């Protein structure tokens, strides 16, 4: 399989996963959060309280901004063959492999994003790493260079949430 097809496919998997979250976020928080709140550790409750009023509009803005960044990274990767860019982006996204199933197990309920994690993200990552490894793309250098994507992605992620909160305020009036 062509590596560039796998890289471009990332955007499809990314969007399908985020569509599941966008569609489910408000109703899940309204229905499930009050039921499961007492099962959540206190440090996590503090964080969830900050985000429990996140609307689908606000989350959609975050997804839009992150999609622009992801598409730019994918485009640059395909044009330049600098695969560490994609590997870094994919590592950040692949954290969903652990977060959604773990949240679901700990909370003993469905969490938004679980189904696409199990049915799309995990199989996609297995295929990506099975294709990349034999071609020599996965090595220590690529891993170290991928930090140049992973580390800056953290403030980009936080900034996207801040922008979304401000912009959603005006859009939802």
Automatic annotation (TrEMBL):
InterPro entries the record matches: HXXEE (IPR025671)
Alphabetized UniProt keyword annotations: Membrane, Transmembrane, Transmembrane helix
Keyword presence, Glycoprotein: no
Entry annotated with the keyword Heme: no
Transmembrane segments: 6-29, 56-77, 83-102, 114-132, 144-164
Signal peptide start and end residues: none
Name assigned to this protein: HXXEE domain-containing protein
The organism's taxonomic lineage, starting at the top: Bacteria, Bacillati, Bacillota, Bacilli, Bacillales
